[in-house]
Amino acid sequence: MTAEETTQYVRLALEGDKTAFTRLVEEHQRLVFALARQCIGHPAEAEDVAQEAFLRAYRDLARLRRPERFAAWLYGITLNVARERRRRR
Question: What is the pLDDT of residues 23-39, one digit of tens each?
Fold first, then answer.
């Protein structure tokens, strides 16, 4: 997905287009899960971390200042969720 496409999907999602956010999830879910798995180690917990990361991204999408940087922002959220999960253990 190009930066322009990412920006467009983010804008559409902000306007309430759930299909646009679904497209962003589909584009990034493998890498988000891989990152969560690398941080957590357990596949089931990594799935929980990935799901929480996407939920937070959806909830906080309006805070994203540079839509073309969605991937980096999402990966940062994933790392934060994984760190929180490890601290709770």
Answer: 999 999 999 999 999 99
